[in-house]
Structure formats: structure tokens, C-alpha cells
Amino acid sequence: MKILVTVGTTRFDSLIKYLDEECIGLGHEITFQIADGKYKPVNFPFFRFNSEINTYYIASDLVICHAGAGTIYKLLELKKKIIIVPNTERVDNHQLDIAEFMAINGYAISINDFSELPEGILSASKSDMRVFEKHDFDKTREIISFCLEDLENK
Q1: Could you read off the pLDDT of 112-132 as tens digits, one per residue?
Q2: Distance separating alpha carbons of residues 84 and 150, to the nearest angstrom
Q3: Are 3 and 62 in contact (CB under 8 A)?
């Protein structure tokens, strides 16, 4: 299985290190996107940033990512299997909320403990995630109408 591990623009060394050390011999082709991380994988290829990250997304069977909204929604649009690992090393914990929402609604697998990753990878390889249906949001006319009504009432 081709797996991309991406951390977006924020360092998440503990995730990269864990997977680099624990996935040896499992038969997966793993590539890491490590941002400005200090840990450099020794067992699998890696890169820091790439303006063509979509080519990596498309080529992967599974993407393991932090819980960054931009990354997750792009992967959902591409109908990719996703394992989300919230980066709790960040100052805020908003990533926990995003990961929980995605897992509860069946769009992704959410992992809070690295030791659950091997089982999560196996589970993701055997199951299908719920397909995300993107709905266009264009409320321009309703907003203009509301504003005009408000102006008329003043």
C-alpha cells in the first residue's frame, strides 16, 4: 500500500518518528512530508514542502495526516482514505474537534494514540470511508436581499 504521511506546515516530529521506526517491514511504501520538522526519517523517503502535493495525494492509497482542515477537506474532495492524527503538540487543541467530527461521521479514522496506528492502517486498507459530498454554498442573493431589507427598515 502506498501511504503518504503529511503534517502540512506545522512540525509533528513525534508522528514522523513513530511511523518511521514502527512501519519497517510491514510492506508499505511510505513517503513523509515533514514540513520544518527536526526529525528526518531514516527508513523511508521524505520531503519538507512541495508545491505539487496533490500529485502525492493522488498517487497514495492512504494518507495519514494531522487534523488540519485544509488538508482534510482536500483529501475528502479527492475521495482518499484518511487516518487523522491530531497534533496535540500545538498550543491549541482544535485539531481534536475536527478529527472527532470526521471519525464520528465516517469520513476518516481518527487516532489519538500512536500505538493504534498499525491497526488503523490495517482497518483503512480493508474498509471504505464514507464519501464526502461537497455542496456549493452560494448565498449571495439571500445576503444582499437581507441587507436591502434591513436598510429599508431603518
Answers
A1: 999 999 999 988 888 777 776
A2: 43
A3: yes
